[in-house]
Amino acid sequence: MLEVANVSKKFGGLVAVDGVDFEIDRGEIVGLIGPNGAGKTTLFNTITGVLDPEEGSEITFNGEDLLTLDTHEIARSGVLRTFQIVRVFGEMTVLENAAAGALFGTDASVSQENAQRRGREALAFVGLEDKADMEARNLPIAQQKQLELARTVASDPDLVLLDEIASGLTPGEIEALSNTIRRLRDDRDISVFWIEHIMDAIMGTADRIIVLKSGRKIAEGTPEAIRNNEAVTEAYLGADNS
Amino acid sequence: MNTDTLPGTRKLALVAAVFVLAPIPIAGSGYGVGVLTRVLLFALFALALNIVFGHNDQLFLFMGGLGGIGAYTTALVADTVGVTAWLALPVAALVCGIIGLSVSWISARRRFTVILISILTLNLQLVFAEAFIGARDLTGGSTGFPYELFSISGIAGAVGIPTKVVLYYVILAFLMAAMVLYIWLINSKYGMAFEAIREDEAAAESIGIDVVRYKTIAGFVAGVIIGIAGTLLAREATYITPSIFTFLAVDVIALVVLIVGGIRRTYGPIVGAVVVEAIEAFLSNYAADWRAAIFGALLIVLFLYFRSGVIVTIRDLLEAYDLVSSGGSGGGGTPAETEAE
């Protein structure tokens, strides 16, 4: 479904992403981990068209070349994201946030009533339905992240990119979130590409994990294989020691 | 958000009724009707600014110049093609709409901040102002020419009321049409997109909103309204000169009207125009020599204590003294709460 080949991104002399290749198939939950500064969010930004990668990079989604599309067109083609630093529309209500996702996230024309209905559904999906009429900025940050997820779900995407959506959650909430993410795939047929620092959350949920370090992909495999991968352990311990 | 086809219809009808009746108590006073007409005209300018700046963060500081383009274009098209000004006006409005659209398109493509857009448009304002004076063959230079288009005196003669009063009602019709357009726009998908873009452009793009497209639409709509308002401003003056369309004569007043009335409030432009024109009229009657100085001082007070608009401040006061029940805003279809400290 999503095919990423030889993607690189430089900022001046710094190579943030360095020749990364991978694929994500329909119905997969793929984790993306790596020490701080590994280039995870930069990789997200190149996929969603926020940043233009270097010459020679290739990113296609269902056969469509994403590099020729603008950010909003990529969203409409079915690739939606959440942000590491939360970006809800603070002065709108929770429901309006979700409805906005339904209203603008597809090429089809959606009526406002229809968008509200789908917004409500998406809120129920992440468990925010009783907060529908609150102003979004009054939600705690962790719930604002859930609202971002609801906003993507409302537009009925094929693939969502989640950027550290579990940060700030209690262990109980992480369990609930992991369930929500599994239901994304099982009930909604949405594939997930998920950056996370909280290992418990991602190891128990992802089908496959990709590890980045200094912009390079150093490992890829099942959570079990990644846990036992020496290069990965070294990357994390090395990062801790520095 | 209201799901009616047009929320607040009754309120708008009430406001329209007040303005329809307003000239009656001052019948015969050409001065009074002139003040009322200016209220409508600056409400119209401020409404355009509310769309493009209030809801879209695009600070257009060439409303005077753009209004002038509208006024001169209407006159020149009517004159050279030999049609009535009623047919020339849509052409002029379209020209102004296209100018607004181009400015917004360039600014959005190049991701101009609100400061850059205001600098760009202020420069255009200066260019237009010079052009009005310089293009002597077309505009009559700084001496201008009489501007009595729209064959209103004919209607006035037939109905038996003064031309100024007929013109007042014509402008009122335009303002009410613009209000209907505004209310529809803000409660539609466009309003939702405007709000999302204003709050967070990156998030808006991430959910599929074409930021450039919506900003360009806002620029076009504002340009059309400004072009019409400029034409009517010249018609009200019955004589067109470049001095009508300066930055100080139009942009500053319209911006003050919008801020005083309340940015992003549906009735902000109208309330602001009433307040500002009332102060202006009072000062020019009783303190003509000190008019500018006192006006400036009053503005400072208004900006300090009524920053979120007189509507909000007065409602809060009434609520504080339990004179009205809280929560009954209804002032507009938008979440227009301004950041209170």
Automatic annotation (TrEMBL), chain A:
Claim: Metal-binding is one of the keywords in the record: no
Entry's Gene Ontology cellular component terms: plasma membrane
Keywords linked to the UniProt accession: Amino-acid transport, ATP-binding, Nucleotide-binding, Transport
Annotated coiled-coil segments of the chain: none
Transmembrane domains' residue ranges: none
Domain ABC transporter residues, every copy: 2-239
InterPro entries attached to this UniProt entry: AAA+_ATPase, ABC_AA/LPS_Transport, ABC_transporter-like_ATP-bd, BCA_ABC_TP_C, P-loop_NTPase
Protein name: Probable branched-chain amino acid transport ATP-binding protein LivG
Signal peptide region: none
One of the protein's GO biological processes: L-valine import across plasma membrane
Entry keyword annotation includes Transmembrane helix: no
Molecular function via GO: ATP binding; ATP hydrolysis activity; L-isoleucine transmembrane transporter activity; L-phenylalanine transmembrane transporter activity; L-valine transmembrane transporter activity
Family membership noted in the UniProt record: Belongs to the ABC transporter superfamily.
Job description of the protein: Probable component of a branched-chain amino-acid transport system.
Automatic annotation (TrEMBL), chain B:
Predominant location category: membrane
InterPro entries per record: ABC_transp_permease (IPR001851), LivM-like (IPR043428)
UniProt membrane topology term: Multi-pass membrane protein
GO cellular component term, pick one: plasma membrane
Subcellular location: Cell membrane
Presence of the UniProt keyword Transmembrane helix in the record: yes
Membrane-spanning ranges: 12-29, 35-53, 60-78, 84-106, 113-135, 166-185, 216-234, 240-260, 290-306
Pfam annotation, one family: BPD_transp_2
Keyword terms: Cell membrane, Membrane, Transmembrane, Transmembrane helix
Cytoplasm in keyword set: no
An MF annotation (GO) of this entry: branched-chain amino acid transmembrane transporter activity
Stated name of the protein: Branched-chain amino acid ABC transporter permease
